[in-house]
TrEMBL record:
It is found in: Cytoplasm. The lineage of its organism: Bacteria, Bacillati, Bacillota, Bacilli, Bacillales. Gene3D superfamilies: 3.90.950.10. The active site is at residue 69. Transmembrane segments: none annotated. Belongs to the Maf family. YhdE subfamily. NCBIfam families: maf. It comes from Heyndrickxia acidicola. This is dTTP/UTP pyrophosphatase. Its cofactor is a divalent metal cation.
């Protein structure tokens, strides 16, 4: 069976891939995450996921490599991970009281060939007070996450409604990924 590598430093992605109960290794990828603003959100996440997987694939040609990328989109604006506390506060105030989209792109590179897909989930937030946001920032949770929140953590308290795959918001659309891995004969 082809050996599998998850090209990610995200502990959430590792935990989610473990659900498939297939062996894999982890190699964090440090590919360039800047993207052209001409790309649509779906094109951007697929491009970034492919870049992450490709970067690892060059050193591990005999493996199948999985890369993923998650972004938040509100009013057509792409929100990645915050650069500092003010940036995070700004993002959270933007998300307050409205619905945003979370896009996760996934790429599997095998024998130089990329198989890709993306998933879109709508997430509606309650109206957030500034005090609530400040308290959330104090928790430290927002800083390594797209859109500056974690639906799986304290950020759950902001969520009014979700339409789509919860696991895609956390960083890996695991059921769709399993189906693609099966098609590629990489999973049961
Ligand atoms: C919206 C949201 C994002 N996230 C996370 C998923 C991703 O890990 C992160 C977005 O950053 P990414 O650049 O997609 O991933 P990463 O830098 O964490 O890991 P790597 O590139 O090595 O694979 O935000 C949550 O954990 N919960 C959420 O609710």
């Amino acid at each position: 069976m082809t050996k599998l590598i998850l090209a990610s430093g995200s502990p959430r992605r590792k935990e989610l891939l473990e659900k498939l109960q297939i062996p894999f290794q982890i190699k964090a990828s440090n590919s360039d995450e800047t993207i052209s603003d001409r790309l649509s959100p779906e094109e951007a996440v697929v491009e970034l996921a492919t870049r992450k997987a490709m970067a690892v694939s060059r050193q591990h040609q005999d493996f199948a490599i999985i890369g993923a990328d998650t972004i938040v989109v509100v009013d057509g604006e792409i929100l990645g991970k915050p650069s500092d506390r003010d940036h995070a506060k700004n993002m959270l105030m933007k998300l307050s009281g409205r619905t945003h989209e979370v896009f996760t792109g996934v790429a599997i590179i095998q024998n130089g060939q990329a198989s890709t897909f993306y998933e879109k989930t709508d997430v509606a937030f309650w109206e957030l007070s500034e005090a609530e946001v400040e308290r959330y920032l104090d928790s430290g949770e927002p800083f390594d996450k797209a859109g500056s929140y974690g639906i799986q953590g304290l950020g759950s308290l902001f969520v009014k409604k979700i339409n789509g795959d919860y696991y895609s918001v956390v960083g890996l659309p695991i059921s769709k990924l399993q189906r693609l891995l099966r098609e590629l004969k990489l999973s049961w």
